[in-house]
Amino acid sequence: MSDNDLKQHLDDRFDSVDRRLERVEEKLDDHLGRLSTAEASIEWLRGHAKLSITIILSVAGFLASLYFKQGM
How many CB atoms lie within 10 A of CB 36? Predict the structure, then answer.
């Protein structure tokens, strides 16, 4: 194998590795985008769940106070 053949072979291999790394990087970027979207959705759900639970407990407390006030 001559030096030029060896150089060409190594260049082809490096190009192949570079293409594979670029595909992995693109997949990682897509995955990170989906992950950040999912995290934002989870935070939104948490906030609304806390708000809903607070409202339900407040209404239940109000109704309980009315019930006990009427009974006494």
Answer: 10
Residue count (the chain): 72
Distance CA 68, CA 30 (A): 57
Per-residue pLDDT tens over the stretch 3-28: 888 889 898 999 999 999 999 999 99
Structure tokens at 63: 């109704």
Q: Is the dihedral of CA 50, 56, 62, 64 positive or negative?
A: negative
The distance from CA 41 to its chain's CA centroid, rounded to whole angstroms, is 8
